[in-house]
Predict the 3D structure of the following.
Amino acid sequence: MSTSSQRRAGRLLTGAAVSLAVVLPACSSDSDSGETADPDGSGPGAASAGADSRSSGARSQTSSAPGADSPEVVATGLESPWSIAFVGQTPLVSERNSGRILEVSAGGDVREVGRIDGVSASGEAGLHGLAVDDNRLYAFFAAGTENRIVRFDLLGEAGDLSLGEEATILDGLPTANFHNGGRLAFGPDGMLYATLGDTGDRSSAQDEEALSGKILRMTPEGEIPDDNPFGDSLVYSMGHRNPQGIGWDDDGKMYASEFGQDTWDELNIIEAGGNYGWAEVEGIAGGNGDGTSSGGSDGTDNGSGDFIDPVQQWTPDEASPSGLAVTDDSILIAGLRGERLHQVPLADLKSSSELWTGEHGRLRDVVEAPDGSLLVLTNNTDGRGDPGAADDRLLRFTP
């Protein structure tokens, strides 16, 4: 990252105190699954793949994957996997605690592409999101007292991939053992988006000068785009507690899934400069629940201020949402505590159906593959699940 970007990140860190508190047993929604409490005792992306994985050409292919009722087990024995990103047809998987980046072959063989030695794994922190753009791999991870985004050139071919030299594009981001966010994705505008939770500092989500409790937008070099909504700032949207899934539909509309505290988890439509209410409100705060401001349409205040309501909400035991994928006709959201996939039709964002409830345990990420199938990571080895002999697994099905 350039010196100027470091100075900007340092300025924006105001109010985002670094917290390394021990993860506590829990209340409800998140901290990855609703199992941890806030330190004050008050409460408990396209998914990761680059924009190329959702191109119209990729979607024209026909998937040979089985249906949702009998998903294919692509790989087993993964350890606290967190994110999936595609390099061509080949999925890469991050492991939160080990810092490993794995390549999964079409036959299910798993090999280590590289390991990020600087990863600090503690509580929910560790190696999080991956994204691929122009044959370069981006990774979000906790490193001591900060979160960091780095980039590697991808070397070699499928079956023999390796990582080039690590280059830091953004550092000095606040971190904590919980509410760490961590999802990366390239948008249709070619910009890199990153989610960052409130890192236990609730008030920072409403502080425009803090980076925590935000969705960030940057160039592939980690610089601030000229058209970002808050001027000389990486902040794209604010008022978030712990967003962990982001993605876009074919019209360029952006969606994000977010852990609530004790009451409501959310699916939001993300607008540039939008304020989603945390920690002042949780869930639908008085608007119509259609992704519009919860302030009165006539300019009056309905009591919750000028916040944007979620288009849909679930209780934490039904969801605790992490990764998110947007297909031609629906949004799929992976649920940790909820142990299910929520499927939300793009034609009716206020409705949803459920897949796999309780069948595969905790679900961390879901992405659309180049052939139109969906890949899903289970997350039963992260210390909160009940792992089976084959966990964790990478599953594949045709929606």
